[in-house]
Amino acid sequence: MLLTGVDNHIVGLGAFNPETIGKNQRGIAGYEAHLNFRAASMAEIFIENGYHTYITGKWHLGYEANSTPVVHGFQRSFVQLDGGAGHFNELPAIPFRRQASFREDGVPVNLPDGFYSSDFYVHQMINYINEDRSTGKPFLAYLAFTAPHWPLQAKAETIRKYQDKYLDGFERLAQQRQKKLVELDILENSVTPVPYNQDIFRRWSTLSHQEKAYEAKRMAIYAAMIDDLDSATGVLIQYLKDIGEFDNTLIVFLSDNGAEGHQAQETEPLIELATVLGIPCCDNSHENIGNADSFIGLGPEWAQASVGPHRIYKGYPTQGGIIAPAFIRPPTQEGPEWYKGFTSVKDILPTMLEFAGIDNHNNTFKGRSVFPIEGKSIMPLLQGKADTVHANNINMGWQLFTKHAVRVGDWKLLRLPRPYGNNEWELYYLPSDPAETKNLAKQEPERLKTLIQHWEKYQQQSNVIIPELPWYIRY
Predict the structure, then answer these.
(1) N or C: lower Cβ tally within 10 Å for the chain?
(2) Cα separation of 286 and 216, whole Å?
(3) Between 471 and 317, where is the model more confident?
């Protein structure tokens, strides 16, 4: 959706991996598990308008030669094709599979000595920009960091900065996050956080001393990864200043989802089993986690704490799963301002096009039929010409596996499987209940009916097919 401004169910990512395509989705356009050509990509549009186009980092939009960055308009690319990988080496995102796949300009490539993901992707991006500076042409640079995606790995010296930071535990961090959000005027002080579900999340007080030490280090590694990413971003910003392009560049920085809470629960037991069976993989001892041969995730407790008062985390259409930090820095911006209204990742492409003075295509691009961009430009808000992006005309849907939701104005309808729901519709009024703690489905039967109709309309327009999944897909 970032690259096209079009719903993922239309542009090929209705299922994000070939193995997650439901049997009732197979052979249907929009469910190829790779970026298709039903929309024009960001890189295609910019290269057609005289820009150099570069990408470094994560791709995860196709593995075959006909679905790599090269065929979607990127002139130069150094990407990891998978959803995740080791940050020091080619450790795959799922243990015991083949090594992670790296490509430069579509050709398989080995990683250089001293590779660390965040640093290298910035370094490579700077190289690409430098190589073409003499042409005088503008550039589009898509820097897709893989940090802080699992496996959690970071520089030892950065981890040490946070070694005593999280010794107070999960619940205390959640309280600190909510307090900070209130101090920054992002949340109202009256927001009731989502209740701590003891059937799902461990309480810090129930952990042994050794378990607390392990968990505190887990979170320290995660924090270090973000610190390293921040430092790497600073290198790129300084480079833009050094070459005199900082004040001529629109910078968009965003995460892609809420905190990750699955991996520690589901992959680490596989590692333990493999160790018992004598299959080498990873050393997840307390002393070794964070290093290149370790493989851990953040875990559900730290993930829930990381999203403050909001509900659940990545992979769920709850607020904790879809709210992401972001900022946009136009050239010569006077100072920081918070915008707490609704925006979507689909709004980024039309914003960039308006900034660059490029016409928004309609239904054709370079002779082929394409879906029109669904997002709305944020530029009027940035220029002080508007107070909102979508006013109250919000109409957005989400679906991942059996979990789905739709938002219309300030109301949100969602349906979740167990253990977080019971596969029945839930209804929330977000201005007074951003943590989704008060299900109003029974109190608002007419509104419930109306939002179900909106969901059905979104489902039809965006080609949403709820998959029939094999038993082993529990994401």
Answers:
(1) C
(2) 10
(3) 317
Handedness of CA 439, 170, 294, 108 (dihedral sign): positive
CA 23 distance to own-chain centroid: 26
The separation between CA 308 and the C-alpha centre of its own chain, rounded to angstroms, equals: 17
CA distance 125 to 148: 19
**What is the overall mean pLDDT for the chain?**
91
350 shares a domain with 201:
yes
Mean pLDDT across 259-274: 63
Which of 363, 390, 417 is the endpoint of a domain?
390
Crossing angle of the two packed helices 209-242 and 117-131, in degrees rounded to 10: 10
Domain count for the chain = 2
- Burial of residue 258 (CB within 10 Å: 0-12, 13-18, 19+) is buried
Residue 105 confidence (pLDDT): 97
pLDDT digits (tens, 9 = 90+) for 191-238: 777 777 767 789 999 999 999 999 999 999 999 999 999 999 999 999
Helices (H) and strands (E) in the chain, counts: 12, 13
Rounded mean pLDDT of 422-448?
95
Question: Which pLDDT belongs to residue 267?
Answer: 57
Please give the residue range of the domain that contains residue 438. 392-475
Contact present, 333 and 327 (Cβ < 8 Å): no
Domain-located, residue 6:
no
57 located within any domain = yes
Asked if residues 435 and 428 have their Cβ atoms less than 8 Å apart, the reply is no
The C-alpha atoms of residue 435 and residue 188 are separated, in whole angstroms, by 12
**439 or 94: which leads in pLDDT:** 439
8 Å CB contact between 217 and 289: yes
Query: Does residue 346 belong to any structural domain of this protein?
Result: yes
CB atoms inside a 10 Å sphere around CB 73: 20
Spatial separation of the C-alpha atoms in residues 432 and 166, rounded to whole Å: 31
Within this chain, do residues 466 and 364 fall inside the same structural domain, yes or no?
no
Token pair in block for residue 213: 């030490």
Neighbours of 433 (CB within 10 A): 17
- Rounded Cα distance between 299 and 286, Å, is 15
What is the DSSP annotation of 183-213?
A: HTTSS-TTPPPPP--TTTS--GGGS-HHHHH
| Confidence label for 309 from pLDDT (cuts 50, 70 and 90) | confident
Per the structure block, which two tokens stand in for 473? 């897909």
Lowest-pLDDT choice from 71-75, 94-98, 398-402: 94-98
Length of the chain: 475
- Output the pLDDT for position 391: 84
Are 321 and 423 in a shared domain? no
Cβ atoms of 265 and 299 closer than 8 Å: yes
